[in-house]
Design goal:
The chain is of the alpha/beta class. Helices cover 36% and strands 22% of the residues.
């Protein structure tokens, strides 16, 4: 799916670098506003970059924030954002029947990152938490230029859905992936995850840590962040 870059892209990139901790508003091709925060290591880059999609709610989830800090420590840039439905109404819920708006939200952030001279466009990794993993998978499948995917708390055994429905064409995907889940996660049975990833078409890591779907425990979140950074650094060293 090819998205047009907004005309104000240069101004937005200047805003992102002027104060990386502050969100900027970006308009998707369908006209919906999302908020984006980009954090960069010191230096000019270009940097290996990770784009993390949030769960059903806000991007301000502990696991994403801990992972972001660890990635920045390892000279990796990070983009995070709020879904358009959340920006419009924090109490609203997205549709499981039509995920195209969130796919467009995520793809808009990918386009923003690709237009940034501080980003190594040959080393962009997508991923997310919970619902963000589902959307990131579709974005990865739509964009062959992306390097791999970082999946925090995937949804592999949600009632009414199978892992194959949520992450289709796993056997056709050759790019590296990591799937980090808690051993007590009600949204992803570990045996189901192992069985699913056994059919992956490319190198797929499974990292199981102590915790539930939030991965919010202090030691758990830091271990998940270390796994994440190790995965991304390995991809950065792979020039293919």
């Amino acid at each position: 799916m090819r998205l047009a870059i907004p005309l104000l892209i240069t101004a937005l990139l200047i805003s992102l670098h002027a104060n990386a901790a502050d969100p900027v508003t970006v308009t998707t091709p369908r006209g919906a506003p999302i908020t984006v925060v980009a954090n960069f290591p010191e230096g000019t880059g270009p940097f290996t970059t990770v784009i993390l999609g949030p769960g059903t709610g806000t991007m301000k989830q502990k696991i994403n924030e801990v992972v972001e800090r660890e990635l920045l420590k390892n000279n990796i840039a990070v983009y995070r954002f709020e879904w358009a439905f959340y920006v419009k109404d924090k109490n609203s819920k997205p549709s499981d029947a039509d995920r195209s708006p969130e796919i467009e939200d995520f793809s808009t952030v990918v386009a923003l990152a690709k237009a940034d001279k501080h980003v190594n466009t040959k080393s962009i990794i997508v991923g997310g938490k919970s619902r963000g993993t589902i959307i990131a998978w579709q974005v990865l499948r739509n964009d062959p230029s992306l390097k791999g995917i970082l999946q925090l708390t995937p949804v592999c055994s949600k009632e009414g859905f199978t892992a194959d429905q949520l992450y289709p064409e796993l056997g056709d995907e050759r790019r590296p992936s990591i799937w980090i889940a808690g051993d007590a996660d009600s949204a992803c049975n570990i045996n189901t995850l192992y069985s699913f990833l056994a059919r992956a078409g490319g190198p797929a890591r499974a990292a199981i840590v102590v915790g539930d779907h939030g991965l919010a425990g202090e030691s758990t979140s830091h271990l998940a962040a270390a796994f994440s950074a190790d995965f991304v650094l390995a991809l950065g060293r792979n020039k293919n």
